[in-house]
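Project standup — Tuesday

K.O.: blocked on the structure for the chain from last sprint. Re-posting the sequence here as requested.
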Amino acid sequence: MKEIIINKNDAGQRVDKFLLKTFKNLPPSLMYKAIRKKDIKLNSKRCQPDSKLAVGDSLTMYIKDEFLGETYSKEEFLRAPSKLDVIYEDENILLINKKPGLIVHPDKNYHFDSLVARLQHYLYKKGEYDPQSENSFVPALVNRIDRNTGGIVIAAKNAETLRILNQKMKQRELRKFYLCIACGKFETQTDTLTAYLYKDEKHNKVRLYSEPREGAKTIKTKYSVIAERGDFSLLEVELLTGRTHQIRAHLAFEGHPLLGDIKYGNLRTNKEKGYTRQALYSYKLKFDFSTLAGNLSYLNGKEFGVSDVWFVEDFYKF
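H.V.: unblocked you, prediction finished:
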């Protein structure tokens, strides 16, 4: 028999969701059967898969230990560096300035060093994260940035914050602004571009179309020209939708690929300028809540930015 006492970061979840998140070796079919046979109980009483958990609740499980083994491997995130470039931090969130070249999450070519691992190591050293005392929650990143793109990444320190920020991301209440160097000059200094994006999962690349197409999703990208130097433009771009490679692919589709982009850009131009990664940076974030934000309401209207973007000074020397 195994007993778990529900803490603040576990509260509000369904029993089945909590169990599957906590015990990676527990087959869903076995779990649902155990709930049905009362081998899993909530506060010593029969429960349902959708029963909601509250702080202090007791979950007891009469299941073989092999399915309830420890899934936490302490040494994994401790192998990553603990140093972060922190833009802002409070008891709920962290805003991190991710440098180009660092992955945000481990991928199929897993490497121990990722931004999420650094985040967990950072909070572990501060005494704000103890994986041994958590059942299902780990500090998490709310948004993603491509490996070779730098900029602001939002991290949640607790489950309530993660839930709220994920909701705000879906509702487009977090406004994200990018700086980039695009090839060519723009006839219109400010515009909102619309296209239809299809993601090719196999090749990790996207294709764009000017008309709706089956499987393609609508994208909207707003840009403003900040300055021009030679045949290059420095832009501020706001994502009005958030799709894979959206800025890179959308500007390339319009005939203005990003300088340094090896996937959608001009290889000859990149080589001439000596750019081996895309000149793109998520440099500004604004909290623009239009719905209730719970324990994050104090952030509404606040704006955070990065002043030192690696390619801006270089651009003005073109």
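K.O.: great, moving the ticket to review. The chain has a mean pLDDT of 94. The radius of gyration is 23 Å.
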